[in-house]
Every structure is written in C-alpha cells, then in structure tokens.
## 1
Amino acid sequence: MTMEATRYEDGSITYPGHPVGPNGSEPVETIDLSEYTAEVITWTTSTATPPGVREPNTMAIVEFDVSEASSDASSSRTQSGDESESVRVLGQVTTDEIETGDEVRPVYVEELREPGVGIREPESQDWDGYRFEPV
Amino acid sequence: MERVAIIGASMTQFGQREAWLQELLAEAAIDCLEDAGVTGEEIEHLYVSNMASGEYEGQTGAVNALAHDIDAMPAYTQRVDQTSSSGGAGMFAAWQSVASGASGMTLLVGGEKMTHRTTAEATDVIASLTHRVEYKHGITLPSFAGLTARHYLERFDAPRESLGKVAEKNHRNGVDNPNAQFQKEVDLETILESPIVADPLRLYDFCPITDGSAALLFCPESVATEYADEYVVVSGIDGATDTHVVHERDDPTVMRGVVESGKGAYEMSGYGPDDIDVAELHDMFTILEFLQMEGLGFAEQGEAWKLIEEGYTERDTGEFPINTSGGLKSKGHPLGASGVAQAVEIYEQLMGEAGPRQVEADVGLTCNVGGFGNCVITTIMEAGQ
C-alpha cells in the first residue's frame, strides 16, 4: 500500500494527483508519502460524524517535506515558492492527543470508514488508507 | 446588454416544515408573482436552485413540477445545482437569461427539504461533494470549518470569543425576521459553552438543517416600470471556483472563489468594498463570515475578527451591517434556497421593506458559498432609478 502524491512538470506536487496539474502542467512522477513524516498544520475533532464513521473523529491537515525525493531538486518549484518541497494531506489521526506543529507518520488502516453505510456508492472508491500517528 | 431588474421577491417560513419540496417551491413562487403582479403565463424562463432533492426525498424534475403547479408552461425550465451556492448560481443563470435578451421575464425559485433526515444523514449528503480522498476519512463540511477556524485563530492570534460574537450578532438580527428558523437571542456564554461539534467550533458556530424556499422575479430594467414604481437592479454578479480538494489550497484562510467572484462583481458594478452599505454573507459556519469579509475587501487578511469585536458589523449601531436577516446561522440554511434568500433580504433592504431590520442602504452585496469555498457567487444590487 502506498500514499501517492503526484509531481508535475513545473515541480509542483499535489495529493491526490490530477490529470492536469497546477499551471496546466503534466504529471511526471509519483512520490510515496507513506515513507515520510509530516507536520500538523491544523486539526479538529468532529463529534457529529456521518454514518459509518468513528465518533469522535480526529482529523488533521499535515504537510510533508519531500525535498529529498526530488529527482532534480534544483529545477523543482514548490506550491509556496520556497526552496523546500511540500505537499499537504488531510487524514484521520490515531489519537485525540494532537497539537499543531506535531510530527506525525502515516499508519496504514484497511478501512477508514464503513463502505456502503453512507450515501456514496461503495464500489466507486477505495476505503483503506493512512491515519497519522504522532512520532 | 440589458440592465437586469428584480421586481418581486419572497421567501417562505424557514425551519422544520411539513411541506415537501414541490409545495415549498410553489409557495415561494406564487408569493413572488403576487408581489410583482405577474402571472405564471408571463414567465419565459423558470429556474429552480436545488442541491439534492433526489438524495433527500427521491424527487427529481422539480422544476417541471413547479412550472405545472404555477401554470408557467411553456416556459423554458432548468434546475441549477451548485451545492450550497445553488441559489447564487441560480441568480447568475437568471441574470444571464435576461441580460442576454433570451428571456423577458425570468422566475428563480430556490428550495430544499432536509429536516426529515437525521443530522448524520443530512451531513453525509452534503459531504458527498467532497473528493474521494477526503470522504473516506469521514470529512464533513463542519470538519473543514473546525480545521480552518483553528488555523485562523492560531495564526492571527484571534480570540475564540470573536467567532462566538458572529453567532451572537446574527441570532440577535434574526429575532426581527419573522421567516427565520430561530427568532431568539443567544448570549455569548451559552454559545461558548455549547457542545463541541468540530473542535474548536461548537454547536452555535453552525447553521441549522432547514426546510424552505425563496424566489425572485427578473426582467429587463426597461420593462420593470410597467410593473413597479420601485425595483432593484443587479449591478454586478460573478462566480468563481477554488480547488475541489480543500487541503490543496496554498492558504487555508483564503477562499479564492470569494476573492475572484468579488473582483468580478465589483468590476461589473463599478463599485468597490467601500461603496457597499449592507451585506449578506454565507455564515454557514461563523468562521466563514471572517473569510468572506477579508476575501471581499471589507477587512485586511487576519483582521475581520477585530471588526466584529469593535461592533463594526452590528445592524443597528455598526458602520457596516452584515447579515441583517440573521444570516444562515439564525434564518436557517435550506441549501438551494439560501443564495436566493440572501438576495431577498438585500432586495427588501434596498426597497425600504425590511421593517425592524431596516438599515440605510443604497447598495448591497450577497456572497453565496458552495462546498467549503469550492464555488462562490457574489452579487451586487442597488435601488433602481
């Protein structure tokens, strides 16, 4: 299992990937974020969750620094325009004990929410993925 | 290009209604036509703003049903879905139909029936607009608000109380709106001690689940005087989008759809932020009022909370009243109706028909937000001459 971000021709990186990237650029490679740690940008604990979702549900937006994954770092441009290369991801957190700035690592989970209980057609997407665990 | 006038407006009682969507739409439509003195047979285009009637009550084709119910046949009909900004998108469609000359009389009706669903079910229908990588984590729109609110408060050193004061203000305004779902004041202490929904946001930071409908009647300004001595003109309108995947935005506190749609509406109207006398902003969550104030140029980035603290946006004592209707927070948020109901409030303010909610206003603005800023419509209106 991997958590694949996409790098585009212009050096920008997104998770998930898109057929056309920022500034109209083409996808050129993927980066497996599951091998990296990330920093918590912000987080929330939701107590009013939809059908099939754990309650409470703590989620965070985290930022991965993947500069060492660059095949040609000198030619790559980031979303924020600085020297490092970063990509943000939203995901569940393994604990309610989390703070902005914490370092986290991805931990694989077979089922993040129960398929077929909510409104979305269960066959229309995958339901496994990664939670973030404080390091 | 024809200048587009609004010659009639109406909204139903918002809240928990026994009526289903078809009846709610007809109720607002008939009231609006009566307000303008226009019959169904005179309608050339009929638009219905609605997000999810199929998902909520198994009713599709609502716009054709409405055309039949109000005897508007053989009018051209179209449903407009842009999630929570369906009402604003309907405004844009109705404006385009008249401005282009395609229609000489266009009725827009926005409506949604939601309260028969549980909170969890209603929340999930709305969350279905999210990307697959967000949805599988159990994301909800309130969760996006919690994530953004924490970031805003930490980054700009804003007090948690400032968000509570948005809810306090809008509930106070809603007391004087007989069609609002909640017509009661809520004190700051109650707001700040209410149950957590998406930390750091609590119950009173969120709008309710609502049934309701609202309507507006559009025609060329050259025709408006045949029906009314006074009317309102759409001076500027524009729509814009932001990323579908919310966490991909460079700055979580900037909604590009708000910024860009605002720019377009200002440019079309010739007005700027300083010219706006009253605004209805999409306060589905209290934090959204801050983000729209900043995105539309009413406050610098990270400083909207200071204006709330200073009472700048109060209806009766502030320099720039925001959400005189009570906002989505107090009035309620029947998804497809909300953008239309925002414009109904500005229409009434500009016509001098807002009763105890009346403020001095020559130019008003609405900002209707879909998703979590995924798509936005900004409209500027002024009294006709």
## 2
Amino acid sequence: MDKEFMKLFEIFIASALINNFVFTRFLGLCIFFGVTKKVETAVGMSITFTSVMMVSAALSWLVFNYIMVPLDLTFLKIVIFIGIIASFVQASDTIMRKISPGLYYKLGVYLALISTNCIILAVPLINAGDKYNFIEAITLGLGSGLGFALALIIMASIREKLELANVPRPFQGLPIAFVTTGLIALAFLGFSGIITQ
Amino acid sequence: MEMQSQQKSTNYWSLLLIGVFKENAIFRLAISLCPAIAVTTGLKTGTLMGIAVVFVTVMVNITVSAIRAFIHPKIRIPVFMLIISGWVTVADLSMAAFARDAYKQMGLYIQLIVAFASILTRAEVFASKRSVVPSFFDGIGSGIGFMFALICISFFRELLGKGALWGVDIIHAKPLLIMLLPTGGFIATGILMGFFNWIDIRFYGGKGAGGAGGH
C-alpha cells in the first residue's frame, strides 16, 4: 500500500514538475502562448484543462483496456482517442450550458478551444504507451493538468509585466515570449534531480 | 456551393510561396508550435518530421477536396478530424516500420500531428472549397513552409549544440550544450521568429508582431 502510494506520488511529481508538459515535453504550446496574455484567462483555462484532462484520461483508459485491447484494435488509438475527447468535450459543453449557465459563461470559451488540443490527446497516448493502471492514469492526468496550470499562471504573470517593457520591435509579442519561456524552462530543469531512479 | 475558380487559383507557384513565406505556419502564424521545439535537436529528426507533415497535409488536402461534395457542412469538422487522424495513422505506422531509430525519439510527436491547427486550417479554408489540383499545391506549400521552419531551427540547434550536422561532426570545439536542452529550443525559435519579423518589417513594410497564437 505504502509502496503503491509512493509510486503514485512519483508519477504525480514527475508529470507536474519534471516532465512538465510545456517546459520539457513542449506540448500545448499553442494554447500556452495564446491564453497567457492575462492572468484571468490563464486561470480559467487551467481549471478547464485540468478537469478535462483527468476525465479524458479515465475515459480513454477504460475504452483502451476494455474495448481496444481485447478486440486487437490498438493501432487505431489515435482515431479513437480523438473521437472520445471530442465527443466528451462536446457533451460537457452542452451539459454545462443547461445545468450551470454561470459557469458556462466563464469557462465555455476555453472548452471550445480544447477539443483538438495536443496536450489533451497526449495524456491518453502516454497512458497507453506506458501501460499504467487506472489510478495511475488518472494521477498522470491530474499531475499534467496541474503542471500545465502552473506554467500558464507563471507565464501570464510575466507577460502582464512584459507589456510595459521596452522590447525591440521585431521581438515584440511572441518572439520575446519564446525567449522568456526558454529561461523558465531552464529553471524547471532544476526539478529533474528530485526523483532519482 | 462550389466557388468560381479565381484568377489566383491558377497560379500554383504563388500558392506555394504563400505557404512557405508569407503564411509560414511557425514563424508567421505561430501555430502548430509543439513539434518545432520537440523534434529539432537534430537536423535528421527535424527533416523527418517535416516530411511526415508534408505528407499528411497533402494527403488530407487531396482527400478533403475530392470528397467535399459529400461532406455535410454541419459535421465537417469531425469529418476533417477523422480524415486527418486516418492519414496520421498511416504516417505513424510507416515511420515505425521504415525509420525505427528516429521513431523511438519522436513517435509521440508524429502521433500528435493529428492536433495540428495548420492542417485543419488548410482543410477548412482551402481544400473544402477548391478542386483537387490547387489543394494539392496548397498542401505542398503549407507543408514545405513548416518543414522549412523545422529545418532552420534544427540546423542551428544541432550545429551549436553538437557541433555536427546530420550526425557528422563539423566544428571540433566544445559545443554549447544549452542548445540541446528544452531552453535552447525555445530561445532558438524565439530568435528566428524575431529575425523573420525583422525581415518582414525591413523589406515588406509589415507590422512585425508574429501571429496571434491560435492553437
């Protein structure tokens, strides 16, 4: 039991900090640069992302292990995972609009952006590749989601300040954001020593 | 439904050039950025990724354009996604069969071509409205533009980070290890993007400031 918990903890820390999706695996960059102009949108996006990521990790794990593996359909995993995620996002969009219009008003925009995002698709693919069990798969989803949230919020706070800085004209906007991200990535490299295996 | 073919559509050369320079997916539009940094530690992986993207973009454009009359407008996005993921699976499995070593490094990123906004955009704005031949050239243009960006980035990263090109040592000095780390990828992309903005401002009188950063 204790050992299992340790393993979950390791997966969590590894996916949130060491293999942070943005800074070491380079996924979700498009969203990362798109929504980090304001802290407020970054927070909204993080909440939506983390929850969608956990649920899609769970759903795709169930489909992968109980339907695709017995039927020998694993080579279709890309097509099927995209289908699961897109339909789940669409469903939650509709349900949220009916049940809680307030929440939908706040987070609905982000939900629409998510369905075909690489970071959401990466979690099921990694789970399938590393043959995690159900709890581990969800932990990976949670860890990656929180790691992504951390990245978004750090970056959004920096970019709000960057707006006031005097940047050379060709570098305004995205180029300087890239260089800044590079420096944060360097800092995140420091986490790689936390877990030694 | 079918749009009258405009003067432009006959000029295939300009379709190609637009994809490569004016609307370069990475440097100008800033979409589909993830692999730009992930697979560009070596010229070889960068080029292979580029080839895979050119293949998928062209095939998706041709398929969408060939069956555009049968796609109901309301479900067009899911249909496009299905077509894209089908062709990505083809690229993924062929890569796994023919380029084993490279595939081990970049397998996940090949699979994630599915989520490329640049491919979906081409299908949506271009291939779903035009006939097969212009769509083919549009696909090649946008794919090659992407490949060009990947090659630029990986050229500098491998040269400075390993002192080598395509695995062959060129500079016999202590390499800058930082260029191989994630950091190097972000910084190299940022600087190249700034450089292309500078060209745009200096020679074409553009506004600079790269794309809005859609996903």
## 3
Amino acid sequence: MACEQCSGATGLACEGCGAMLPARAIDRFAALGLPRRFAVDAAEFETKFRELSKRLHPDRFVRAAPADRARAAQATATLNEAYRTLRDESARAEYLVTLETGSLDGNQPVAAAFLHEILELREELDEAAAAGDHARVAALGQAMTVRRDASLGVLRAQLAVWDGASDPAALAEARGELVALRYYRRYLEACAGYEEGAA
Amino acid sequence: MSLMQIGEPGESRAKEACAGRAVGIDLGTTHSLVATVEDGVRPLVLGDARGRALLPSVVHYRAGGGVLVGDEARRLAAEFPTDTIASAKRLVGRGSDEVRAASTLMPYDLDLTDSKVVRFRVAGGTRRVTPIEVSAEILRVLRERAEERLGGPLDGVVITVPAYFDDAQRQATRDAGRLAGLEVLRLLNEPTAAALAYGLDKGAQGKFAVYDLGGGTFDVSILELTGGVFQVRATGGDTALGGDDFDRAIAEVVLRELAGGVDATHDAGQVRRVLDAARTAREALTSDDVAELRIERTEGAPYVRTLDRTELEALIRPIVERTRSTCRRALADAGMTARDLDGVILVGGATRTPLVRAFVAELFGRSPLADIDPDQVVALGAAVQADLLAGSRRRDDVLLLDVVPLSLGLEMMGGVVEKLIHRNSGVPCGAEQEFTTYADQQTGFDLHVVQGERDTVANCRSLARFVLRGLPVGPAGMAKAKITFLVDADGILCVTAREETTGIEAAIEVKPSYGLTDDEVEQMLIDSYAHAEEDKAARLLLTERVEADGIIAATRAAMAQDPALLDDATRSALELALAALAVRIGGLDHRAIHEAVEALDRAAQPFAERRMNRSMDAAMAGRSITELEEIL
C-alpha cells in the first residue's frame, strides 16, 4: 500500500513523509518497518518504535477529527502489539516461525519421551515445594534455566540459517525447539510462583 | 499567632496574560491541586484567592442545602462528620460489597443498597451522593479557580489517577470530570506525571523508578527516558494503601486508650477528631522527635499523650513493608534490577516520612530524589501534559508512552480467565477473540469481562457483562463472533463485537459491574446545569461565612490572650469591625462579608504587628548573634 501523499513505502506510517497510512491488516514486522528476520538490532529497534510512536500516538491527534483519532488509536495499538512481541527474543522467534509455517497449537508433534521427562521433573518440583524445600526448588529452577538457555542457543542458530538463506527447512527444525521452550517456560513460571510464595 | 493567618485578599487575584488555557489537575485522596504552564516553559500551581495551593479533598454538604469544599469543609468535619466527606477517592469506582468488606474507620453514613455504587447520606440525611459527585465538587472548585486566574473558560484538562487504578475507577474519575463541566483531554497516571515534571525540568535521561505514596494510594512505576520519550516499562501498586493508613494505625491505638484499653465503637465525630489529631502528630514527627496528641472529650479532662518517632515507626513499618514486593515485581516486569536504575523519584506527601525515605533508599540502594515538592510534582507534570496536548506551543519532541496496569480477560467455561491483554502492555492496545456458537439455534452470547492477574474469575475484578444478540440462526458452530478489546490512552477499555459470517455489528448491551451508567451521568449533568448558578452563589456565601466565623474566633482569642498589646483606639476599631462583620454574616451578599473581613483585617493590623514583634523578641531572646544568623 503506497502513501497517498508521497507514494512512499509500506507500514503504519509512510517512511517518506511520516503520514499515517490507512488501517489494514499487516504483520508485526511490517508494522515496525522490519524485514521478516530473527536478528534485530536492539538500539535501532527502539529508535524505530519511538519515531513511529511520535507520529501515530493519539496524543498527536487530540484536536483532530474523531475518525482520525480512532485511526491513531488503532494504529498505535497495532504498533504496540508488534513492539511487545518482537522486543522479546522468544516471542519474536515464535511469531516469525508461525507467520511463515503456521500455528504451533495442536499440529506440532511432541516426543513422548520428552513429555514423560518434563512430567517427572514437574512432579519433583511440586513435591519439593510441598515439603517446603526451598533449596531444592531453587536448584531445579537453576537446572531448568541452563536447559532453557541451551535450547535458546540452538534456536538462535536455526533462525540464523533462515536469516541468511530464507530456508524453510531451518524453520521446520525451529518448530520443535519452540514447543520444547514452551514447556521450559511454564516450568520456570511454576518455580518463580513457588519462590514468590515462599518469600 | 492566629491573627497572622489573615492573608492579603486579592493579592494573587491579578489575571496573568495567558495563551493556552489547558490545566492539569491532581485529584488527590487528601488534597487536590490545579496547575498550568503559563509562559510556555515552566508549570506552576495556581493558588486560591488567599494564595493556598492545596485544596483539601473534603466536601461538606450543609443540612439546609449548599456545598463547601476545602479548608472550610475540613473545619466542619468533626462537628458534622457524616455530612463531611474526606478521602472520597478511596471509594470511587468501588461497589458496595467491596466497601463493606474494607470499611475500617470510615466515619460516614453509607448507603450500601446499590451494589454498583456506594452513596453517602449527607446534608443531615436529606441527600445521597456518590463518590463521583463528591469528586466533581472538588473539580468544580479547581475549575473555577483556574478560570478566574486564567481569565476565561478552560480549553481542556488532564486529570491524574493512580497508575494502579482499574477500569471502573478510571471511568468514575472521567465521569466526575464530565460532571464538573470539564473537557477531560486525558487521564494521566500520577507517577508518569511526576516523571514528566522531573524529566523536563532536569533534562534527565535513563531509567527511573517513581515511588508514589499518597494519602490513600500507592504506585510504583519504572520508566525509561530517551530523547524526549517517557516510556513506562512497568507499573504496580495498591489502590488502598497510603498515608491515611498511617493515621488509622495511630488512631486505633488512641481510640483503644480512650475506651480504657478495649476495642469499642466510637461515634463518628470522635473518630474524625482522633484521625485529625493523628495526622497532625504524624506530620509533626517528620521533623520533630516527639509530638503531642490532644483530644477534647465531651466529659472530663482532654486526653493528652505523646507520640515519639520510634513508636510511630513501629506502628507504620508493617504498612510501608507492604510496598516492598510490589516494587520488586515492577522491577522484574521491567526486566531490570535496582542496579540498572539511574534514579528514584519520590512522590506524595507520605514520602516525607523519614521511615519511608530510609525504606526506599534501602530497597533501591540509592538515595531518592525529592527536590520537586512531592505534594505538587504530580499536578505540575499534569500541567505539562495538558500543555503538550492542547497548549499554544506544540512540542513534538516530547511524548508519554504509558501501560495498562492490570491484565484484561474474559470468563471462560468453568470460571477460568483467558487473558486478552497482559499487564504492562503499552496503551493504546487491543486484542481480538473469536467465539462460535456451541448449540443449534443459539442467537447470542453472554460475555463477562474481568481485570486482574489471577487465573480464576472469583479472584479478579468484574468490569462488565455483555450480552451479544442478533446472531444468524443456524446449527452450532456456524455463527462466529469476533470480540475486539481496545484500551485507549486513558487506560479505559472499549469492547466491540462483530458477527463474522454476515458482517453485521452485533448489538451489545453493556452492564457495567460498578459505577454509573451513561444515562445516570447525563441526568446528573442536566441537574447540575439547572442549579449551577445558585449552587455557586450558595457556595461562595458559605465559604465567606465559615472564613469569617474562623477569623472572628481567632481575633477574639488573640484579644483575650494579649489585652496588654491593645491600645484603646485599636480596641474600639476592632470592636467596630467585629460588630460590622457579625451583621454582614447574617446577610446573603458574599462580597459584603468579604469586604467586612478585609476591614477587620485592616483594623487588626497594628495589633497583629505588635504580636509579631513580641514573638520575634521572644524567639531571639537569649540567643547569640551567630545563632540568629543561622536562623534568619
């Protein structure tokens, strides 16, 4: 979609003249004017977000017509959702992979052995928490953090392949890693919940 | 020295030339303020005719009709406890069952029959008013103050709210603004306002925590300031925790002692007096080590006891400690530790308490900043935001990016909450959810919107129930409704629904769980227009009368205390002026009363000067010159 005023580039705001573009369905990378890549320069990302906010935020349209105010609110909501998703590394990875290869929910097979192992670890955690064994809870959390970080490392390598060659095979592998990461994350949330409860 | 309280009426009345007439209002639990940016650069607080900046958030409803706001209302609180509402903010946007569960030491006559909104029985039991209407009275006085100072109607206002206010509390605040005849440009979170005041004033960059402990609410916000953008990273708080709780802790001890060491019920006037004495003592202990509490009793000698700082700190430490986990969670939500921060900003009168300062310093590992008056900083920041939004000079280099304080979700089968918008998401923000019919011939849905962090509906706060009707008739799963949440820049949620297969906007019936419906607010607005002029006249008259009564009492007391300082000429001039004022008080002309007060003030001048000189002599007696140089 080209800008009406200067026929500039796509996104929420025109990169040429900064005008707010008409509302339409765009993905979250496009909302921030980013390519569909995993690697993101953090400083550049924040600058982009701030500049777009300055153009689109409803505060800039306080005295505008109601329709423009509504559009500004909608555009900023889209921008904020994109920012929230893409700022976090894991969320960005999952969003990129599902955008390119479809949802993970219900159609990604999980190995029975893996599920079994996580289930046992979880039981161990619940027992330690029930027994008030804070040291054990902390140790289990620590072990899971190490495992999660290793998994993130693998994921990064897989997505670097995608970034370089747009190879869909890299994304297929990443799907498996992302599902595992979901289990790790929930486990770590449970640990944090127990630790908070104890404190 | 009571005579010295007689100010210089008219002194600050001069109308300053002003371009934009946008103001910021801090609608606080204990007191409220209005501020504006006059010269396009610096915000300043607008005082009343007597130069007072802080308007106590106290509203008195007179039995015979008429409403008083501020100091004049506060003076009547002990005498007419149920007709005088203080801390209405604690009840704004709250339902009756919530208040019933948490009403500790509230000396009011509450009507809790309406589950959606609490009402106070006031004016000798003849009127029932909601906290929204009480807040509107405060806002109306500030509006008139600002219009008088700025010389015309206002272009718009920014009203601040605690960052942790939920949707119902925000709606209620916006309704109060509407009732007061204000165009509310924005609801601004208090800690964000404070950061704006600091950031623009000091040109600060980096990461900051704002610790805001007011009269009735606690907020903590973590912000990042970069190139003019104030981005809130995380916020947390407790909308029922503040300096009022310090006073309550002291009052509970005192009331028990008054009752001879047992818990007993006390009449509302007694509770009010004890709470006031507790507050005075607490404020004195900010700079002093010991304070005296004195309560007059209907029978026998007054109750007198001392309170030292150690005892105060033992009483309030558990309350202050409750802010610790909130601060920790906000830091974690922002993905930071205390070491990442470049500064900690103190906001709210309760942060003057030495224990609170020490606690914050220990918690964040650095001494906090408080160089802008913590009572004024929020109003100053609100004025800056009002100027940015509607002022004469647009500043495109400054922008506030705030967040939603509490997650928003829908009730699912089995009372489980599905979160659609997570806390600390930037606002405006939105979310969509699709629903399909689960039964044949189903033509509608019941939706329940809740706010909170817990997983079950029972532990979250109900915001509203929606009934969606007009779906096309067909087998189960055929009709699809898309529900859209949009949280606006004020942090207020708007829900819309659309049937996907036919594209028709489904009819939504909104049943807010708390607060007033639009129709109710509309009706109140119509009523207030009808009575606006007479209400204003009645208030001006009452205000002058109460002021005059106070001044007469103060003058009489001073005359009785220091007869030696009165020469015959001054005495007869004073008696004459007092008699003239007494006559005017009985009349209906508020200007005549005001003029008589001014005349009394002039007549008292020589006497007041003598009293002042004498106390200066007393203060200087027996001190060396070096000591005096330090003091003066």
